[in-house]
Amino acid sequence: MDEIFHVPQAQQYCRGDFLTWDPMITTPPGLYYVSLAHVASFFPVAWMFRLAETFDVLCSTAALRSTNVVVAIVCAVLFHDLLLCIRPGIGDRKATTYAVLVALYPVHWFFTFLYYTDVASLAAVLAMYLFCLKKQFWISAMFGAFSILFRQTNVIWIIFFAANGAISYLQDLYPKDNVSHENIEATHQPNKVVSGRDNKTASQGLRRRRINSPISKKVVVSESSKVYNSLAEEVWDVCLKLWNSKCDVLIAFAPFVFVMVAFVAFIIWNGGIVLGAKEAHVVSPHFAQFMYFSLVSATALLPWHFTPSRVLELFRLFGKNKTCSLLATLMSLGLSFIAVHFFSIAHPYLLADNRHYTFYIWRKVIQVNWMMKYMLIPLYLYSWFSTMNVLGKSQTRVWVLSFVLSVALVLVPAPLVEFRYYTIPFVILVLHFPVIGNGKLLALGLLYAAVDLFTLVMFLFRPFHWEHEPGTQRFMW
Fold first, then answer.
1. Which residue among 48, 91, 114, 133 is the one 20 to 30 A from 167 at the CA level?
2. Contact 381, 440 (CB under 8 A)
3. How many C-beta atoms lie closer than 10 Å to residue 285's C-beta?
4. Can you say whether the dihedral through the CA atoms of 318, 321, 322, 326 is positive or negative?
5. SS3 of 257, please?
């Protein structure tokens, strides 16, 4: 659907016309520049064999689509390297398996073969994350700026990576305060007496197991038996250290500051965040979208969330402190009810366009009767609780909080329900979820492949026509 805008615009660029702009296009021209480089790479050979006399002849729809195929391979390589950087002990073979799994993720896989901005957007964000992990902040900021040329909301992920990178940078400035989160339970369990020898061994183990990964740092605690008892305490400690080291942090992360200043200048100049079709992409308080993401991502990560052992684990967790758990559950139910009842936005595109699978999910599931959207609330909450609990096993509370806020800032303002908007936070989740066995990975990969095959068959062999508009229509995400 968006190709009817993107392909002609890219072909304008191929003809050297960089001033003509389709007012229906909402995103910057990053994809078109990548396509120019991609097409230019095989133009000399085409010209040599007289397959094309001019550059613009090569900019066919198929050639432009092939840009995303190449970029999808880059995505897989970046994901592989990121996983090895975040989890050095995972091994090359396992990392490759995970990269293939993400490549098969149905929404990402489907748009690999169409001329959309999503695949290139993901590649730029992953490259930004990888170089931030390697503490090459200038290169990371450059890819961050490049990612905005594909999707403006990627500015939120720039802030997310830069903020957590700054926290990790602080841990290097305060080395005595760094210990692995994995050792907290072993060394700070209540009512447990540790012998002098065991204490010495544990301390040596803690020093050996310090984490150097810049963004996926473990919980910061003091070596003198300090453990963060609350999120507020952890946030306060981080803020205090940021303030005390503000000059060092600002100098190290100046590239990200430059990008943010440039983005603010762009918004002021443009009069908003989207380029075209502004009336159809008005910022809206679509809090229900935040709930949809939780269930979609949890379903796509089935082995981590919806198993009997996982359900029992969450019930035991809630049973440890029944009063606080009950209050948190009631508050979450109340807020979720408000989000679903008052902030479920049915965009005109969602209601009118029966080419999207979301059209049928909305009509046949969410709106099948007046009760269904409320009946789904427990599933939304379970998905978010499970996600935060899984992340909390390896990440700091601040990291988890910043991720949740980033997801909200990306998705809540979007009035249109599009599963492709969920791809970047989904991939970040996969990067930071615990490693599972090969059997579960194989089962999940086969499930993804089955969905991919289904969507491919529906797209190719189940076309249909509209009475009010000429042309062939096809089913898609």
1. 91
2. no
3. 13
4. negative
5. helix
Question: What is the reported pTM?
Answer: 0.87
Handedness of CA 474, 148, 217, 318 (dihedral sign): negative
Which amino acid belongs to residue 235? V
Confidence band of 470 (pLDDT split at 50, 70, 90)? confident
Instruction: Judge whether residue 225 has pLDDT over 60.
Output: no
Nearest 5°: the CA angle 405, 406, 408 is 65
Whether 169 contacts 277, CB under 8 Å = no
61-86 vs 423-432: helix axis angle to the nearest 10?
30
One-letter amino acid of 306:
F
Alpha-carbon span 161 to 216, nearest angstrom: 10
- What pLDDT is recorded for position 210? 40
CB 227 within 8 Å of CB 186:
no
Backbone phi, psi, residue 464, to 5° = -150, 175
d(CA 76, CA 86) in angstroms, rounded, equals: 15
Distance of CA 441 to the CA centre of its chain: 20
22-33 average pLDDT score: 93
Between CA 14 and CA 212 the distance in angstroms is 45
CA 110 to chain centre: 17
pLDDT at position 378 over 90: yes
CA distances from 97 to 43, 76, 100, 440 (A): 34, 10, 5, 12
Q: Are 53 and 29 in contact (CB under 8 A)?
A: no
Q: Which residue has the tokens 């040599």?
A: 48
